[in-house]
Design goal:
Elements (H helix, E strand, L loop, with lengths): L10 E8 L5 E8 L5 E7 L6 E3 L5 E2 L3 H11 L7 H18 L3 E3 H15 L1 H11 L5 H10 L1
Parallel strand pairs: 4-6
Antiparallel strand pairs: 1-2, 2-3, 4-5
Helix pairs in contact: 1-2, 1-4, 2-3, 3-4
Length: 147
């Protein structure tokens, strides 16, 4: 680890601690040249698949964008942030379990709709109406009947 103060390559770990959840390791380090101390954090890198849009563009999976879409559908609904976080975690777990390097955006949309249907039916209908681009009221009625 390079020292952020003098750029020397040799440092010594003075102390190591895990976070309460156990997903981050905090290390206090000391530079062997300038003797200054600094902190580093280690966390596992999770490789989620890239999302392939309808136009063929590939974008990195963004949990913040997923959260924003879900929160828009859940606006003014009695759903806790813990439920939203759990739904996002389940979606990410499913994405990692596939082992795929790429994922069609349609598949991601289906996963989101499944989670929204599970936690709030109104949010599910809101999301589905935009996601599926309903052309007429009959398609909307059919979705509600399916619930």
């Amino acid at each position: 680890m390079r020292c952020p103060f003098c750029s020397h390559h040799e440092t010594q770990v003075a102390e190591t601690r895990e976070s309460d959840e156990g997903d981050v390791v905090r290390r206090r380090r000391r530079c062997l040249k300038c003797d200054k101390r600094f902190t580093t954090y280690e966390r596992a890198e999770i490789a989620l698949p890239a999302v392939v849009k309808k136009d063929g563009a590939r974008v990195e999976f963004d949990p913040a964008k997923l959260r924003g879409s879900m929160m828009l559908a859940l606006r003014k609904r009695p759903v806790s942030m813990e439920q939203v976080d759990a739904a996002i975690d389940r979606i990410q777990d499913k994405l990692m379990a596939t082992g795929a390097r790429e994922l069609p955006s349609a598949r991601l949309g289906e996963l989101v709709m499944r989670e929204l249907k599970r936690i709030d039916k109104v949010a599910y209908v809101r999301f589905a109406s935009v996601y599926r681009s309903f052309e007429d009221v009959d398609e909307f009625r059919q979705l509600i009947r399916d619930i």
